[in-house]
């Protein structure tokens, strides 16, 4: 089974999700600059979600550069990953509308990030299993690859922080992106050696 259709489908879904998020941004009721300031939390929620989706897409693309084979488990785990990221528009909209007054929107946002992190980890594990015992992905990510597990653990803590101060969940999850902004260096070095 080739990976091209899976990558093209994933790219299309991510593009649609980002488009849905931007379409949810509504202009202010008045032409007064102060009205734009009132929407600052909505814009911040959108920006954080856009960056989060961009980081996931970038890492997904990077990961699939070393993938040679996929199977049914990879297809399903990728679909579950897409299911997780498809919840970002809803969570982003709710956070933007109720930015500080309630912990529930931020908790939901944190749960969406957690679900996405778990599904990305599951996708990596399925790719490793599908690729065989002597594959590039197994050699590069099969051992000592803790980024997904660190993300999951920190994200669980971030969800609990919503009870202390709701924006902490999104703040911690945003800082957690720093772990993923630069895709896995081992993959990058391996690709450079092949060129």
From TrEMBL:
Record's subcellular location: Membrane
GO molecular function: potassium channel activity; proton channel activity
Membrane topology label: Multi-pass membrane protein
Keyword set includes Transmembrane: yes
Primary subcellular site in the record, as a coarse category: membrane
Catalysed conversion reaction: K(+)(in) = K(+)(out)
Keywords: Ion channel, Ion transport, Membrane, Potassium, Potassium channel, Potassium transport, Transmembrane, Transmembrane helix, Transport
A GO term from the CC aspect: membrane
Pfam short name (any one): TMEM175
Name of protein: Integral membrane protein
Species whose genome carries this gene: Lacticaseibacillus brantae DSM 23927
Species lineage: Bacteria, Bacillati, Bacillota, Bacilli, Lactobacillales
């Amino acid at each position: 089974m080739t990976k091209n259709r899976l990558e093209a489908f994933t790219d299309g879904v991510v593009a649609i999700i980002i488009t849905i998020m931007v379409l949810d941004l509504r202009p202010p009721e008045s032409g007064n600059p102060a009205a734009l300031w009132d929407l600052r939390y909505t814009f911040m929620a959108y920006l954080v979600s856009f960056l989060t989706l961009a980081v996931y897409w970038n890492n997904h693309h990077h990961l699939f550069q070393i993938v040679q084979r996929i199977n049914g488990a990879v297809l399903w785990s990728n679909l579950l990953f897409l299911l997780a990221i498809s919840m970002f528009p809803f969570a982003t909209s709710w956070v933007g509308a109720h930015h500080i007054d309630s912990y529930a929107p931020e908790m939901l946002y944190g749960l969406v990030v957690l679900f996405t992190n778990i599904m990305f980890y599951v996708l990596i594990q399925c790719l490793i299993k599908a690729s065989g015992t002597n594959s590039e992905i197994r050699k590069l990510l099969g051992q000592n690859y803790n980024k997904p597990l660190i993300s999951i653990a920190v994200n669980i803590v971030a969800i609990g922080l919503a009870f202390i101060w709701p924006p902490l969940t999104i703040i911690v999850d945003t800082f957690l992106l720093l772990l993923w902004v630069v895709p896995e260096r081992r993959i990058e070095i391996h690709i450079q050696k092949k060129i």
